[in-house]
Amino acid sequence: MKPELQPRRVTGPDGQEFEVDPLRDYYCEAPPAVHPPAYLKIIEDLFNWARAESIWILGFGTGCGAIEMRPLMTPRFDAYRYGIQWRPTPRQANLFVISGYLSVKTLKRVIRSYEQMQNPKYVVGLGSCTINGGMYWDSYNTIKRLDDYLPVDVYIAGCMPRPESLLHGFMELKRIIRAGQAEGANDYARNFAWYKDNQKRVIHDWDMPDYNW
Amino acid sequence: MHDLYDRLKTRFPLGDWIARRPDLAFVDVPLAQLRSVLLHLRDQEGFTHLVLLTAVDWIETGEFQLTYLLCNRRRACDLGLRARIARDPASMESIHDLWPTAATYQRELREMFGIDFPGSPRLHEDFILEGWREIPPYRRDFDTLAYARETYRERPGRVTRDPAAYMQQQLDPGGH
Ligand code: SF4
Predict the structure, then answer these.
(1) In the 8-state DSSP scheme, what is residue A26?
(2) Structural domain tally of chain A?
(3) Rounded distance, CA A108 to CA A149, Å?
(4) Which of A30, A54, A165, A168 is the most exposed place for a label (fewest CB within 10 A)?
(5) Quick check: B152 and A205 CB within 8 A?
């Protein structure tokens, strides 16, 4: 466990001493919960329509594929016209695009960021590396199947996929959200133990809370 | 650059001069002379920039070859000094006092090849890998493929094709 996560006594700016247990005080101890659908189907459909039109991508690039985000967010391909925008922090985002190969070290940061995102949230795997390891299939340090570690809604194949295929993938994601099938966050909550088990199998120096909310 | 070799040879015992390009050459240096050659190049010959410090695993002879690549900016040329050290246990004198950037390269070599550089700052902190438990991954006796196979689950259905034969078949199925 990182030193900053250990329980300790700190002195506040007013001279008061108090105990801090970061795991309890700064993080949520409860595991993620399944988010039930709205009380009426028509309401849930309305929510899903609204969700599909409000996609906020976390600005987090993992592999070579991250380079395809730049033409997408600039006038050449202009994803903003579809209501797709980028946000700087996990708390403001609901779509995580894993843009290529994912080293174990990055996977740790990805898990932290993913768990900090608000429900409902979605994951898109971009490029062959996220699907079966791509050209890094024999690497000692990159994972081969993203869906072992995070719930993936859409994969976009290619090495690397062009911005047009990304746009197509986003349209597909919207279709899935509207159909009420983008259940990634609930899937993560339901199979939390399985995901944690897989994550800890490759991340050997687990030095963060089990759930980073 | 060959004039440099002539000048150096009068002072140090050096191996053959291997010129790769007009502005790039390599030379073998005995381990005991390495530090004085580096100092001389830095202070007298204008090789002020340490471009990189890297290693090659010669597992057959039980050695690591270290390459110190230096750059002379004024003359726009690079010189690589190569020295061999024993592989097990692998240890080398640190040069972080000559170039502070060397400490970073030495951290990397410690992690990826398991070469010790006593006295080098932050040498034993994690650099690229986190929580690595195997032998250093750039050592040639580390079986990368076997490790990847047993650590990361594969998705069934992956096929490997010979690119030339496959494209031929795609573009010209009849084989004309
Ligand atoms: S799929 Fe290709 S472009 Fe994408 S991260 Fe992997 S190697 Fe890079």
Answers:
(1) T
(2) 1
(3) 10
(4) A30
(5) no
- Tokens, residue B123: 């040498």
d(CA A199, CA A149): 6
Amino acid at B10: T
Q: Is residue A45 part of a domain?
A: yes
Instruction: Output b/e per residue, A61-76; b: 16+ Cβ within 10 A.
Output: bbbbbbebbeebbeee
- What is the domain extent for residue A96? 40-202
- What is the DSSP code string of B12-56? S----EEEEETTEEEEE--GGGHHHHHHHHHHHS---EEEEEEEE
A27 lies in a domain? no
Domains and CATH numbers, chain B: 2-171 (3.30.460.80)
- ipTM of this complex: 0.84
List beta partners, residue B50: B70
Residues B176 and B172: their CA atoms lie apart, in Å, by 7
Residue A89 and residue A66 in contact, taking contact as beta carbons nearer than 8 Å: no
CA-based nearest residue to B67, from B45, B89, B50, B42: B50
Report which residue type is found at A81.
Answer: R
Mutate to test the interface with A, among B108, B112, B130 (most CBs of A within 10 A): B130
pLDDT bracket for residue A4 (50, 70, 90): confident
A202 contacts in B (CB within 8 Å)? Answer: 151-152
In the three-class reduction of DSSP (H, G, I as helix; E, B as strand; rest coil), residue B93 is classed as coil
